[in-house]
Amino acid sequence: MSHATHANAALTPRARLRIARLIIEEGWPIPRAAERYDVSWRTAKKWADRYRAEGPAGMNDRSSRPRSHPNRTPAPVVRKIVHLRWKQRLGPVEIGDRLNMPASTVHAVLVRCRINRLTHIDRATGEPIRRYEHQKPGDLIHVDVKKLGKVPDGGGWRFVGRQQGERNRSATMARTGAPRSKHRGPVIGTCYLHTVIDDHSRVAYVEAHDDETKETATEVLKNAVAWFAERGVTVQRVLSDNGSCYKSHLWRDTCKDLGITPKKTRPYRPQTNGKIERFHRTLAEGWAFKKFYNSESARLAALPAWIHQYNHHRPHSAIKKAPPITRLNNLAGHHT
Predict the structure, then answer these.
(1) Spatial separation of the C-alpha atoms in residues 309 and 303, rounded to whole Å
(2) Which regions of the chain are under pLDDT 70?
(3) Which domain holds residue 89?
(4) Are residues 195 and 316 in the same domain?
(5) Helices H / strands E in the chain, number of each
(6) Hey, which of 17, 44, 66, 149 has its CA 20 to 30 A from 238?
């Protein structure tokens, strides 16, 4: 197989073979063959010698990489550089100063180890980002609660401005009898979105409630498990944070009754439940704050259609731009 010729080559591999055969097989003098192909006699001799030694395979370009690297940074120093990058997220200048070596050398090591960009490293721990995905739908579902301030009648401040937003909140508070907060002024309440994400498919299930009690959380879990079961998915495990509703005996007993193993994230580590955290961001950008709603009921009325769009039509970047529902296929043998 022929290799690509480097940019400054005077001859292609095919032309090199022709000039070499003229000299070796047909007995042409080197100066005459060089003149025929408009190259120096040294170039003509080089390809003739290589053809004599290696045959046609010798006509391809060779790598310019040196066979040995006597000045390469020693492995123990590389480990120190990587350690400082991972654990303290220092840049090449700071690492070079600590190890008494040029910043350019440190940067070269970071590039070679593919940690020259901090986006490759978890912000909280300094460790390389580990991405995982369970093998089939139902192996693990993520649950969490997203809190949103309710939309006052007439619209919220994001779309109507601060002054009008405050007036709308006050009017809605007067209508609903909501209490007035000492620090935040008129408060019309919080919408608690209980969200469930299937780890493998990213299919989402969402219910809006007025609280995040253990009773509500367990009822949502039952409904979600039944919803997935209707689509051929049997839930095996559920991952939640350490919120009070998920640490309750009722949650534990409900999981046991459903035949589900409850799992908890590491405390103060929302990255452990990263898939649902990312879904909440998409939910806020794509539905909650995407457009003007003149009331909370109008926003909630738009939620089912958005969830359907997300599950059935929206391309998901983490699953090769396919809609999540296309992965919700538990036919026999499909995931084995």
Answers:
(1) 10
(2) 1-9, 118-133, 159-160, 165, 174, 176-188, 267-272, 329-336
(3) 75-120
(4) yes
(5) 13, 7
(6) 149
